[in-house]
Amino acid sequence: MTRLKSQPMPPPTCPKQLLKIVAVLFPQQPACDHRTEKDEEEVIPPATVEELMRACAKVGNTKAPGLDGIPNVALKAAINAAPEIFLDMYNACLQRGVFPGRWKQQRLVLPKGRKPPDEPSSYRPLCMIDTAGKVLERIIHRRIEKVAEQHLADNQYGFRKSRSTLDAIDLVVNIARNAISGERWKGGSKMYCLVATLDIKNAFNSAKWNCIMEALERMDIPGYLRKMVASYFTDRVLKYDTKNGPQEYRVTGGVPQGSVLGPLLWNIMYDGLLKFVLPRTVKLVAFANDVALVIVAKHLKDINNLFDVAFARIRRWMETVGLTVGRTQDQGGADHQQEEARDHHAASWRA
């Protein structure tokens, strides 16, 4: 007999319910008031046919279109047929430092699992963006990435070329293996290792734009590219359907999931966390927004103390950029650390 599987619930259509979900998933942040002064002597390299064709080739043929409804195959055919028209358009954007408003409108898709439909955390929002805008994003992305890769911390393994989840796991496992590789525990060189994975709530939609802009400046990203990102963040609109018709919601923070620039901008902002000066036996390992706090010490008391210090610093930094780490109860002591460790899926072992 074939077992019948329960089907996922369809997405909600009630305007009030949807607004509640959207407001939680896309929290309002202070306005991005970062000013990028125009450098009259700055030379803005025009986009080339090679850049355009490389960006065009990255567009997936079967990816869903944005609000314009233009299939990716059709747009790619148009670019290949008349690249000079698109080059003129994209170069005008770069020279003026303007990301067109039409390409900052995003269509919300709410894929849902099997959790309660009234819970915003049940949804993993995707934003469908016009592909013509994504091509411009990719031109900007490649130019920013060329500079940023020289500065990004080695312990960030997400959204980067030639790096994977397995590389991050290998690093953590090797740290633990080295910790317990000594001859004996008492009086010997064996040590404890704790790995605490931190749960960052709704990370990608919550980052403050001002903090991203400041991080771009710290990395010496050229002014014209920072101006493009500032324009990219300005007047973003989320559109979604309800049973009463389409609705709009003003987006004031985060990096759009489904965008081209989003992952790179996230890594640039998150770099501030990964470059913390921590005790020698404490290390952060990241894959995108997932962070493992790895602590090695001879005694469990030292593990607790190091966790206290590191976790408090991490939580303070997260708050400054608009992020929240799991629970935020201000308590102390070993009992609290055991509770926090469980709360953040912590794991420790001794061999």
Automatic annotation (TrEMBL):
Residue numbers spanned by region Disordered: 328-351
- Tell me which PROSITE patterns the record gives: RT_POL
Organism domain of life: Eukaryota
What are the residue boundaries of the Reverse transcriptase domain, all occurrences included?
Answer: 92-351
Q: Which SUPFAM superfamilies match?
A: DNA/RNA polymerases
Instruction: Quote the protein name from its UniProt record.
Output: Reverse
Q: Coiled-coil regions in this chain? A: none
Query: Which PANTHER family does this chain map to?
Result: REVERSE TRANSCRIPTASES (PTHR19446)
Q: Which GO terms describe its biological process?
A: DNA biosynthetic process
